[in-house]
Amino acid sequence: MKVIATNRLSGRIFMGNANADKTKFIGHKRDVTDEVIQAAADHLSIECKDYVFKQKDGKYLILTHEIVDKLPEDTVLDEWQPV
Q1: CA 58 to CA 13: how far, in whole Å?
Q2: 38 vs 61: CA distance, rounded Å
Q3: Could you give the CA distance from residue 66 to residue 20 in angstroms, rounded to a whole number?
Q4: Considering only CA atoms, which of 79, 78, 82 is closest in space to residue 34?
Q5: What are 19-42's pLDDT values in tens digits?
C-alpha cells in the first residue's frame, strides 16, 4: 500500500510502500517534499480556503495562504524554490 508520511526528525515528506499497519516503509521510499509543498500551494491558491488541524497538544495549526505582488523587505527566502 502506497503512503505519504513525514519524518518527524528531518521534516522531509516521503512516499513509498508501507507495512499493513502503516507504521513503517518497506523497500524503497522517495523524498517528495518539494512536490507535496508545491501541490499544497497550488491547491490553496485554487480553493481559496484555510485548513485547520487540531494538534496532539490541543492547539490548532492553521494552513492559509496570501498572494502578494511584492515580498516584504524582511522576507528571508529558503533555498527551496518552486518548480
Answers
A1: 23
A2: 19
A3: 39
A4: 82
A5: 999 889 999 999 999 999 999 999
